[in-house]
Amino acid sequence: MVIHLTAIHYVYLAFIVFIMALLIRRRDTTMICVAGIMALGILATGTLSGSVSGVFNSFVYATKELMGTIMIISIIVAMSRILIITGINEAMVAPLTRFLRTPALAFWGIGIIMMVTSWFFWPSPAVALIGAVLLPVAIRVGLPALGAAMAMNLFGHGIALSGDYIIQGAPKLTADAAGLPVASVMEASVPLVIVMGLVTTVTAFWMMRKDMKNGTWRDGLVSIKSTGNVLSADGKADEVNVVLPSKVKNGLALVVLLLFLADVVAMFVLKLQGGDATALVGGTAVLILIAISLLAHKNQGLEKITAYLIDGFVFGFKIFAPVIPIAAFFYLGDAAFTDLFGKVLPEASHGIVNDLGVALADSVPLNGAVGAVTSTITGAITGLDGSGFSGISLAGSIAQLFAAATHTGAATLTALGQIAAIWVGGGTLIPWALIPAAAICGVSPFELARRNLKPVLIGLTVTTVVAIFLI
After folding, report:
1. Number of neighbours of residue 270 by Cβ within 10 angstroms
2. Which single residue of 137, 260, 402, 458 has CA 20 to 30 Å from 151?
């Protein structure tokens, strides 16, 4: 397939490079994203008014796309407030303190629990299920909030999602595009997922410990602080706690855990995934918030329910405010561009990002080593829209292209492209994609992306080298 790149493609690519450079340097990207949207709008519509309108419309589009995540985070934070003020969270996490006694055990323990949970129910619901419970334990034993976010993020959105061995959504998409059986792609991905997971998590942990030892660690806390006793959306400690009898507190802690366990069982029995699974967790959290608020605050319960929800939504939108502009720009790389500016791309186009990926594959020589490198780079580029899944079909198609030319390694190349796309776009490097873990831990998604950058890039490099030997 031949794609003719236009000025829109080149301008989009130029802004991608600029934005990523700013993210690496920890500079704010809002103005550059708005400038990028305006530039694309002028090229697409030819009018200043269309370009200016495109800025607002792209913000609306991004907000709609992110609304489910905003809602679940806001509701979980609101529920966490009442659990912490009543001390129920203390009763919930007490049994776990016997196992997570050191920062290292907390990092690896949270990561492994997140990985196993994500295999069955995908990472976003898993973050909601375990984040609020395990974070206070991790902080109590000395693991920074950002370290806990890294563990949940790398093990869940990285290792678990890139393999996706239980739900099998990712390997099915890539296998279908490459014309291969799903089983062959999954089998080929096992050594690559293991290498990527080990290299990335070990590197991240080593860098964290080194920076903490040298005093150069930045925890990136924003808007929310966990002191082990109180969780506040404005970062201020709330000392007004509600005293409940020990038996009542312990009983409610057990009920909360059982309700979320029932959610897990329901997800498995009813085969709920993605948004459906997240909705179940969110609805359960709302019911828990209402019931405990009425019990704890009695006559003031009705007003307190609203207050907690307001607190949660203030937190949610405060966290997402700096993310919406950059998400709006990157969403233009996919279907959003046509939705907002009309059909101005070439007829054969499948979106700006996918067009760039195809053009890259068409511009390099075809052999095994170059095929592996190109599969990784193409997968990473298609992941820049923050989805991870939107471009993995392209990764499968490009793997098929190189395999046909070299007559080797179709399944390995397909798995490699899948891993690169999901690790970049599924929620470890793109700030708005990793918001669930960042928000639950109360850290900046941009700081989390920065901490993940070197480990993920090192992991992708090593994994690509391993893939070259496996082809």
Report:
1. 11
2. 260
